[in-house]
Amino acid sequence: MVRTMSLLRALIRTARMIRHTPQLADGLAPEETVLLDAPDERLGPALVAAALGEYEPAAKLLATTRESAEWENRDRYVMRLAAFAYNREEWLTAWLSAAPRDPDAVVVKAELAVRRAWESPAGIERLREVGPLIDAAAEGDPNDPVPWRISLDHARGTHATHTAFESLWEQAIRRSSHHYGCHVAALKYLSAQWYGSHRECFDFAEQAAADALPGSLVQALPVRAAFAQLLGGDTTSVQDDRIDAAADLAITLSADYPAGDPWPAEVRNLLAYVLVGRGRWAQALEQFRLIGPHATSFPWTLVTDDPLGQFLSTRDGVRIQVASMTPLRPTAGRSRSLGH
After folding, report:
1. How far is CA 131 from the centre of its chain?
2. Which of 49, 152, 176, 250 could cross-link 145 (Cys pair, CB 3.0–4.6 Å)?
């Protein structure tokens, strides 16, 4: 009897998946259109030019962000340009040769140096050597918080004390009190992986989110803290309801942005991962719909060497899970609501 019931449940689950999985593809970006870390319409031309060895579009883009105090965009563009220069540096070398003290070129140079030092076998020593480059970037524009975000990442790698880190943090938020990149850097420092704990990480994230401006990505800090705990496999340091509350807050934030918007794409990718980890399949599927074609390296690179493949396979897995839980026949109330 027990075997019969188990077989019956398996057959029903399979029937549900066969019936509903194709329908649940509605609203999901076709697989062939999904790109990893696709640049926005402003960064794209700068990267194309850089590939041709031309630095002028990148220089104009970063100058615009600095002059108009677009600190969030500036930080993203600096990181993406430095990532591009990691393997194709000719355009940046030409830029620095033409304008060695250009604050925009110098900040990209500092970001690139820190990125390379982090990946070096002699990481701490290399990081300490690039300190003067970060100082030069900070002197380029005293109002720019991006060099201070770089400083926070640098300090984490050089084992800076809490006191030293707090001093850098004060400098960062003095320039932009709600800067997302600086908050993420601080959250990493406070994580259990580095110099804090899951509880300390959550406390910081929740307070920052509570103080954040409406629509600010800083409201996603708690879900980043939740991700760190799930990734570490620790299920005891922070209660499940705290993790779910972080996900709920990020769902609310995600709803503030249009579907397919590249700006919150990384937050939505992260949120989808956490919702999957919590078994909240239907909500995870909704985030995959909102993500559209914008898969991001984070968080998938932390669990696989094939982030795009992992994104797509996770999305398919979520769709199958939702299908398997959907009744074969809609209830009478649902039928009426659908106009049947």
Report:
1. 26
2. 176
Which pLDDT tens digit goes with each residue over 291-338?
999 999 999 999 999 999 999 999 999 999 998 887 655 555 444 343
Tokens of 142: 């005293």
pLDDT of residue 325: 83
Q: 36-85 pLDDT, tens per residue?
A: 999 999 999 999 999 999 999 999 999 999 999 999 999 999 999 999 99
Task: Say how far residue 37 (Cα) sits from the centre of its chain.
Answer: 10
For the chain, what are the domain ranges? 9-38+202-327, 41-189
What are the beta bridge partners of residue 36? Answer: 295
Q: Are 263 and 2 in contact (CB under 8 A)?
A: no
Distance CA 84, CA 86 (A): 5
User: Encoding tokens for residue 16?
Assistant: 């549900």
**Confidence at residue 14, expressed as pLDDT on a 0 to 100 scale:** 46
Distance separating alpha carbons of residues 221 and 143, to the nearest angstrom: 24
Q: What is the distance between the alpha carbons of residues 78 and 134, in angstroms, rounded to a whole number?
A: 13
Give the pLDDT band (50/70/90) at residue 231: confident
Please state the length of the chain.
340
Long-range contacts of 247-252 (CB under 8 A, 24+ apart): 247/223, 247/271, 247/274, 247/275, 247/278, 247/280, 247/283, 249/209, 249/219, 249/220, 249/222, 249/223, 250/219, 250/220, 250/222, 250/223, 250/274, 251/283, 251/287, 252/219
What confidence score (pLDDT) does residue 232 get?
79
CATH for the 41-189 domain, from 1.10.443, 1.10.8, 1.25.40, 3.40.50: 1.25.40
45 CB-near residues (< 8 Å, 6+ apart)? 57
Measured CA angle at 86 (ends 314, 45), to 5 deg = 80
